[in-house]
């Protein structure tokens, strides 16, 4: 099964056992080769505890899992495409914040396209990976890159909104600086993925008719753990902390924001209602990011501590459900960052109905507009 963060330790143990059975030890290179690009294991019996043995269990959950993945794929692709369409077509939407949101939508859409179909095919096919060696390396490169880009872009959006709300008089970053930030996000993501790609192997068990495409750190368990926990820190703990702190500061700023001049009772109630909406939206943003990615990180940690903590027979099922939860974040983001935004909805209606947009009432507290 496609796994977007780190190698499957259970498969690595089985792979090492198969290597020993074929006369090759973990950490050794085949004659004339410095790396395993394709390892063909012949006359080797796949160990009875090989994780693909629980594919039969997955088949019983197929009627439930596949519709869920298809729903994530459709909503993720269509929702993010509409978001990109609105930003590209409307010049009014051409600003730094919306370009960050557009980058998030593009990475989420690419994540859906690369993660969902290949993950399903790999998980439910008893022959394992059937897309060839080139696609093995390509897919396992694109998948984590899109995940990292999404996470880092979410962090950039939170920081951008923090400065726009808490420090409204400070100069916002220019469009040129925004392009540099986005380029840096993609470059950093590619750099972080490089070690995993370097340890990705396309392995064929010819006698069993089984092919796997996995990340293996043969004889480098310490390095693998360092990489895994560094990735956890950079792609979950630090971004989640930054998002929480940024939106907490925004919430405090908005709570203390008082509109100048005399307000009528209706105006005061309208402002309180708008603040409540903002607080709910901020809470949803933080909760969606934390909850969607928590299961897969907990799974990784338990697997790294002791793989026996995860029931061997249910290993792939649990892994697949955690992966599904992580992929669902690509469906949440379009709604949280755009469709709950009055301006995005108005622009979308304008494009599809060709009617003039109805003006949105001015905000009594101008700073609140950057949050939605």
From TrEMBL:
GO molecular function: neuropeptide binding; neuropeptide Y receptor activity
Superkingdom of the source species: Eukaryota
Positions with biased composition (Polar residues): 1-20
Compartment list: Cell membrane
All copies of domain G-protein coupled receptors family 1 profile, residue ranges: 79-337
Record keyword Signal present: no
Residues covered by region (Disordered): 1-29
GO terms for cellular component: neuron projection; plasma membrane
Main location: membrane
SMART domains: 7TM_GPCR_Srsx
Membrane topology category: Multi-pass membrane protein
Transmembrane segments: 64-88, 100-125, 137-159, 180-201, 226-250, 278-296, 316-340
Function summary: Receptor for prolactin-releasing peptide (PrRP). Implicated in lactation, regulation of food intake and pain-signal processing.
Protein name: Prolactin-releasing peptide receptor
Organism of origin: Carassius auratus
Gene: LOC113054547
């Amino acid at each position: 099964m496609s796994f977007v963060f780190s190698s499957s330790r259970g498969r690595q143990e089985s792979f090492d056992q198969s290597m020993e059975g074929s006369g090759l030890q973990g950490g050794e290179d085949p004659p004339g080769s410095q790396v395993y690009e394709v390892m063909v294991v012949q006359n080797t019996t796949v160990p009875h505890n090989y994780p693909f043995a629980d594919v039969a269990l997955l088949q019983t959950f197929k009627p439930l899992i596949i519709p869920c993945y298809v729903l994530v794929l459709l909503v993720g692709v269509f929702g993010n495409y509409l978001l990109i369409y609105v930003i590209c077509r409307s010049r009014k939407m051409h600003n730094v914040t919306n370009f960050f949101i557009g980058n998030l939508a593009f990475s989420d859409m690419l994540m859906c396209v690369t993660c969902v179909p290949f993950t399903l095919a790999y998980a439910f096919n008893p022959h394992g990976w059937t897309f060839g060696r080139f696609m093995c390396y390509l897919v396992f490169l694109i998948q984590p890159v899109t995940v990292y880009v999404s996470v880092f872009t979410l962090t950039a959006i939170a920081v951008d909104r923090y400065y726009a709300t808490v420090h409204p008089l400070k100069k916002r970053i220019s469009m040129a600086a925004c392009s540099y930030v986005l380029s840096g996000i993609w470059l950093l993501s590619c750099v972080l993925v490089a070690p995993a790609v370097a340890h990705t192997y396309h392995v064929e068990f010819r006698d069993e008719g089984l092919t796997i495409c996995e990340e293996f750190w043969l004889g480098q368990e310490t390095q693998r753990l360092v990489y895994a926990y560094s990735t956890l820190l950079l792609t979950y703990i630090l971004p989640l902390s930054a998002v929480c702190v940024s939106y907490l500061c925004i919430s405090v700023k908005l709570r203390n924001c008082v509109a100048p001049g005399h307000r009528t009772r209706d105006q005061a109630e309208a402002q309180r209602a708008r603040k409540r909406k903002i607080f709910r939206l901020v809470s949803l943003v933080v909760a969606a990011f934390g909850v969607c990615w928590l299961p897969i990180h907990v799974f990784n940690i338990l697997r790294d501590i002791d793989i026996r903590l995860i029931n061997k027979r249910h290993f792939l099922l649990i892994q697949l459900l955690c992966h599904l939860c992580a992929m669902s974040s690509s469906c949440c983001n379009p709604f949280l960052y755009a469709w709950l935004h009055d301006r995005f909805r108005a622009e979308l209606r304008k494009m599809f109905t060709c009617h003039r947009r109805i003006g949105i009432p001015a905000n009594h507290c101008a700073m609140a507009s950057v949050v939605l």
